[in-house]
What does this fold into?
Amino acid sequence: MQLDRLWLTDFRNWAAADLPLAPGLTVIRGRNGAGKTNLLEAVGYVATLASFRGVGAEAMVRQGCDQAVVRAHGTRGGRELLLEAEVRRSGRGRAAVNRQPVRRASDLLEALRVSVFSPDDLALVKGPPAGRRRWVDDALVALHPRSDALRRDFERVVRQRTTLLGQAGGRLSPDVAVTLDVWDAKLTETGEALAAARVELLERIQPLVAKAYADLAAAAAPAANTTTTGLAYEAPWRAEGLAQALASSRADELRRGVSLVGPHRDDVALTVGALPARTHASQGEQRSLALALRLAAHQVVAEEVGEPPLLLLDDVFSELDGERSRSLLDHLPAGQALLTTTGPVPAGATPERVLEVVDGAVVVSGDSP
It folds into this structure.
């Protein structure tokens, strides 16, 4: 979908905002704290019904208000589309496409897909496994909306099973054993399917990550284009199968009252030069790898669906040196993009429109190309 307009009402710090967007690159400039990231977050929300910052609905509603509204207008395949999302401080929000209600975030994928790049992406490499699981699962859903149902089913089973383990109080009564057998069977079915989908995607994305990393890292260190990167799905239970792994861990899970085995505990191991990236790569190498993960996921989705997702670039150049910044600009995928910055337009960028955030308003810059 090609967005041409974004409207906000009571979203974060914005009582109201109206953004005219260019078909190519739109740069949004403003001081720290002006609300630039909030604008990108709104685009991400109307596309996914979730914040890419990982916060709940109440954080996105302006202080003193009960709800926020995000509206986005654009075209896809010659058809005009209006996306609307209502964010409620409490209770369930609503979303619609051309005034027709949608129930799930995956229903919006036929209208708009987004790829988000932010300074927080370093956590993909340095942070805990949950971020890497989310990265691969989000790419799965963007590729195949039906994967959203599989992910939700798996998460529901884990919640129900964990609740049962907690209520058991460490005792395996006959009733608990029967019910736990049922949940184990469901966890095995959904967990094996989710893990298999993750492995298949990682195998597909691996060469794209390697190419993107080489392109980005070589700008800062010419020898880096010979450095290998690796992605490996870490799931110890796969050696024996999830059903057997659950049986083997039952006593420990009952004692601790939590679900210890399954895709919700798995990881994606990242390496640079055959060494763990989290502990052995430099910060520059880690940033290049994090960007490579985002670029590769973006590329595989674009290839699968036949059009690139909308790129949301949240102040990423502030965290990169000059060489990596230029290299990232040189290798940005074609398509529409929104880029925020606190300073000048990054050297090498060719925006079609520059928007300034000044005193709580968005205005078209006079020096916009």
Observations:
- The chain has ten helices and 15 strands.
- The first strand starts at residue 2 and ends at 11.
